[in-house]
Amino acid sequence: MSRGASTMNWIEVSLAVAAEAAEAVAEVLSRYAPNGVAIDLGAGDTAETVTVRAYLVADETIAIRQRQVEEALWHLNHIWPMPAPEFRPVQEQDWTAIWKEHLPVLHLGNRVVIKPTWRAYAPQPGEIILEMDPGQAFGTGLHPTTQLCLDALLRIPLQAGGRILDLGTGTGILALVAAKIAPVHIHALDIDAHAVATARQNTRANHVSHTIRVEEGSLAAATGVYDLIMANILAPVIIDMAQQGLAERLAPEGKLIVSGILLEQRAEVVAAFEEHGLVELETFTKGDWVALLAEKKKTSSRELS
């Protein structure tokens, strides 16, 4: 932070929301508070309700930006009911320490641990440790779809040298976990340039940039065949990808993990898969969300020659 920024006063904006909505709220707040957004889990490392905090520079435009924040959250409230944001002044450099204080070590299931780089943590046997700092939107691990994809991924035995495609990589969390499990080759794609930059930063922080190639793009940018494809996106996009040749990118008996699917959308996704030679193996559910583990039929007529 520059010397000029260190003497500024700040306004903290905070609100308690369902954990499922935390990433969306953090993304909205980051538009107006680029210097830091924190998701506070409270006393534990998992929670159904969390507090999202962000810090606005208290300059001559603060009243305008507070109204912008309120308006943006009002629109988001139509998707996830949430309280009105609270604003309070924070003096000078104090916001930096407060921001870091509210970022705990996060446990996802029994094995995956996400920790900020400044936090000390003693790994337990079998745990997969990811170093990830905040200021990132989708893929912090709090959203049910991310957790469901991780559950499915940890059920698959990854083979050394295997090829993996991660579509809509976001912060790269799924690719990072796969790279920690086995020495595989991962092609991570996202259509958002900011996500690409963030994922690349995370591969370097976790010393797996030699394993994960992060690029801007989607399915059309993938070449060859893969042993595993992961796509934590949205059901309509997944169905569209199935129609655009998703199965052709899978090796025979290759596995596919998809999420971003609501319970009522599951049947439509499964039908699209069956039409293109993909067979559902297992369904994972959390609340209203579903992840599917599927496999490509060995005799599929859509295999690459």
Textual characterization of the structure:
The chain has 305 residues and is α/β, with parallel strands linked by helices. 29% of the residues lie in helices and 30% in strands. The chain has two domains: 3-104, ACT domain (Alpha-Beta Plaits), CATH 3.30.70; 137-296, Rossmann fold (3-Layer(aba) Sandwich). It has helices spanning 3-6, 22-30, 62-76, 94-101, 144-153, 173-181, 193-205, 235-243, 266-275, and strands spanning 10-18, 37-40, 49-57, 86-90, 106-108, 112-115, 128-131, 163-167, 185-190, 212-216, 226-232, 250-262, 278-286, 289-296. The relative contact order is 0.11.
Overall residue-averaged pLDDT value? 86
Which structural category fits the helices and strands? alpha/beta
> How are strands sequenced across the largest beta sheet?
10-9-8-11-12-14-13
CATH topology of the largest domain: Rossmann fold
What is the C-level CATH assignment of the largest domain? Alpha Beta
Discrete helix count = 9
Helices and strands, in N-to-C order? HEHEEHEHEEEHEHEHEEHEHEE
Biggest beta sheet summary: 7 strands, mixed
- Dominant shape: globular
